[in-house]
Amino acid sequence: MKLIIENIELYRYEIHSLVKAFYPEEDVKVVVEEDPHAEKYLKNATGPFMRVGFGEERIKIVAEGRTFMRLASSTGVSFRKKGPACKAALKELLYELLEELCGKKLPWGDLIGIRPTKIPMTMMEEGKTPREAEDFLLKEHRVSPEKAALAVDIAQREAKILEHLHYRDGYSLYVGIPFCPTTCLYCSFPSFALKAYESRVEEYLTALEQEMKETAAIMQGKILDTLYIGGGTTAGQQNLALFGYVYTGEIKNLIVTEGTVRSTNTCAAGVVAIAQGSPITNVSNGVDVVSTSRTVGGV
Question: Where does residue 58 fall: left (phi above 0), alpha (psi -120 to 50 degrees), or beta otherwise?
Answer without folding.
Answer: beta
